[in-house]
Design goal:
By secondary structure, the chain is an alpha+beta fold. The chain has a domain of 126 residues: Aminopeptidase. Helices cover 26% and strands 36% of the residues. An eight-stranded mixed beta sheet has the order 1-2-3-4-5-6-8-7, sandwiched between helices. The radius of gyration is 16 Å and the shape is globular. The chain starts with 5 loop residues before the first strand and ends with a strand.
Length: 183
Amino acid sequence: MKIESKKYQVHGLNYIIRSAAEADAVYLPELRVMIDGETENLDREAGEHLQSQADCSRQIKEDLEAPNHLFLVAVVDDIPIGFARCEGSSLKRLSHKVTFGVCVRKDYWGHQIGKNLLLQSIAWADKNGIKKMELSVLETNKKAILLYMDMGFKVEGLLRFDKLLSDGRFYDTIVMGRISSVI
């Protein structure tokens, strides 16, 4: 599905959040590898589960066509620097909800890009009759957990010993969900 573009200026940075477009597929594989290597908050390490330009192009096309999918990019000077996805199911019993994920290049943290991607996703979900958004977040990502709580997400569960990080220790993943107030 597609949303209208929105411009932001936060802490001196101008950026746009818009629906992903076919042209973004050129940048997304490299962006994903870069972001995966900058933090351990995500599931993958840099270079794992690589996507090609064709994979990204196919994903964008599918997300634009599916009524319960959304693929957003945050762009600076027409170059994607972050993205968020909401992915719904074609199964009738699961069609009321989407899974949300977000990532932003580390050198752009502190400009509310992740927050604004989340806000745009919530607005889209509420407008389109999505009853529930769910996400997973690493227990050590306290800033994200607080943001999600501020946006109406509640802790629904804990996946114990879910991630093995570079320090050799296991960490829990927190499962969170937000029920739409527009029910």
